[in-house]
């Protein structure tokens, strides 16, 4: 069977996803083109050899519409012969892009492929794609007559179900900033040209974050109209223990082991497992738990065999619930911080986490890494890799 390998992984530094953020004036096509161009330049790869570019993007509207992957390929100066497609599996979009890319290599459909993702949330916040329209239709409304809810309320339900208090959530958030601030991401980050100069430092990391400072923040999703439906809610989720709105892009160069050898490129890791699952769309962030069990059972790898684990920090309650159920060593989970500090540019987060996990394995000498991502609508992705 053909082995799919990771040759390189890059990302932009995070930008605050609001007007005035470091990347807010950079067109999202140019953000994505920046990481595509960096991948081929760093590897000295002829871009004509790229069989496909698969990009994750959640809000495929406005400047992110009309197949942003193809537009970024053209903006990066790749030959017109290089095709591209854009996919949406919500927050796991670029993780799914990497899975599709690697599976295409394993199946023999690709020799060289780029998986990537982008989101400029300063102009495309959550919900921008619907423009106030109904994205569900009558049949979904009939199945869920009480209505679907936003992720913030789902996070509140998870915090209540597992009994995570405000102090525990804030302590986890402070940990994310502390670890991210102490970490070296210089191998991952490529500079982005902006109207104000090059951007190369994560804007969302706040090194001085403390539990006391976070405790002063008000609940972000309080809606007392939901009290009758969910009496357990007591409003523990804040902007401080949630991932921030973020602008950014990331990309991973994937190819067959044989092609890498032929091109004289040194693989950094191989893909060893994939899984995806659906979960309750009300408590939509808990899919990381069953998808972890699924990928470990299918691969024959135990939780203690993992040297590092990335559980996307959409909210602090997500990795905390995962830890409560899977009983992994917490020191191996998000050891260089997570999305609470590094940001969550939705479509780009999957390949960003993949690159972060790869860097952790290389810096620590670890062998195996697991990446899991919760996703809107009640889904989750899991990916296993092994370092060379």
Relevant terms:
globular; Thiolase_CS; Peroxisomal Thiolase, Chain A, domain 1; acyltransferase; alpha+beta; transferase; two-stranded antiparallel ribbon; 10-stranded mixed beta sheet; 12 helices; 20% strand; 388 residues
Short recap of the structure:
It holds the Pfam family Thiolase_C. By secondary structure, the protein is of the alpha+beta class.
Q: How would you characterize this protein structure?
A:
By secondary structure, the chain is of the alpha+beta class. 33% of the residues lie in helices and 20% in strands. It is built from 12 helices and 12 strands. The protein has helices at residues 28-43, 68-75, 93-107, 138-143, 151-162, 166-181, 211-215, 257-263, 288-299, 317-326, 339-342, 349-364, and strands spanning 4-11, 15-16, 52-56, 84-87, 112-120, 192-194, 197-199, 246-256, 269-278, 308-311, 368-375, 379-387. Strands 1, 2, 3, 4, 5, 8, 9, 10, 11 and 12 form a 10-stranded mixed sheet that branches. It has a two-stranded antiparallel sheet with strand order 6-7. Helix 1 (28-43) crosses helix 2. The radius of gyration is 20 Å and the shape is globular.
Given helix and strand content, the structural type is: alpha+beta
Task: Note the total helix count.
Answer: 12
What distance separates the N and C termini?
Answer: 18 Å
CATH class bucket of the domain at 272-387: Alpha Beta
Q: What share of residues is helical?
A: 25-40%
> What is the CATH topology classification name of the domain at 272-387?
Peroxisomal Thiolase, Chain A, domain 1
The CATH superfamily name of the domain at 272-387 is Thiolase/Chalcone synthase
Alpha-carbon Rg, integer: 20 Å
Parts with pLDDT < 50 across at least 5 consecutive residues: none
Strand content: 15-25%
Protein name: Thiolase family protein
Family: Belongs to the thiolase-like superfamily. Thiolase family.
GO molecular function: acyltransferase activity, transferring groups other than amino-acyl groups
Active site: 91, 344, 374
């Amino acid at each position: 069977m053909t082995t799919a390998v990771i040759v390189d992984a890059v990302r932009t530094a995070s930008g605050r996803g609001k007007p005035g953020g470091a990347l807010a004036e950079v067109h999202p096509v140019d953000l994505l083109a920046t990481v595509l161009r960096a991948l081929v330049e760093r590897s000295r790869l002829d871009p004509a050899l790229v069989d496909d570019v698969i990009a994750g993007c959640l809000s495929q509207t406005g400047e992110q519409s009309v197949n942003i992957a193809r537009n970024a390929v053209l903006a990066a100066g790749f030959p017109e012969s290089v095709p591209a497609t854009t996919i949406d599996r919500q927050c796991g979009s670029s993780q799914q892009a990497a899975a599709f890319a690697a599976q295409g290599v394993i199946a023999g459909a690709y020799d060289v492929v780029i998986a990537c993702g982008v989101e400029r949330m300063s102009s495309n916040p959550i919900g921008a794609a619907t423009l106030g329209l109904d994205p569900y239709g009558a049949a979904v409304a009939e199945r869920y007559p009480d209505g679907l809810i936003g992720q913030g309320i789902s996070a509140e339900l998870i915090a209540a179900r597992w009994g995570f208090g405000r102090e525990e959530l804030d302590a986890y958030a402070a940990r994310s900033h502390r670890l991210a601030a102490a970490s070296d991401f210089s191998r991952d980050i490529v500079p982005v040209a902006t109207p104000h100069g090059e951007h190369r430092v994560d804007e969302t990391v706040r090194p001085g974050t403390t539990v006391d400072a976070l405790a002063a923040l008000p609940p972000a999703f309080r809606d007392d109209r939901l009290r009758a439906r969910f009496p357990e809610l007591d409003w523990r989720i804040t902007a401080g223990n949630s991932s921030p709105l973020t602008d950014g892009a990331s990309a991973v160069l994937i190819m067959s082991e044989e092609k890498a050898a032929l091109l004289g490129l040194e693989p950094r890791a191989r893909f060893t497992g994939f899984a995806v699952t659906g979960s309750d769309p009300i408590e939509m962030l808990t899919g990381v738990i069953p998808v972890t069990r699924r990928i470990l059972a299918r691969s024959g790898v135990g939780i203690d065999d993992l040297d590092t684990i990335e559980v996307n920090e959409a909210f602090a309650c997500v990795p905390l619930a995962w830890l409560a159920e899977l009983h992994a060593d917490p020191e191996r989970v998000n050891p260089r911080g997570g999305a609470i500090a590094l940001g969550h540019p939705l479509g780009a987060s999957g390949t960003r986490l993949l690159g972060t996990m790869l860097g952790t394995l290389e810096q620590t000498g670890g062998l195996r890494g697991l990446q899991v991502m919760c996703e809107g609508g009640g889904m989750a992705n899991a990916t296993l890799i092994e370092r060379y």
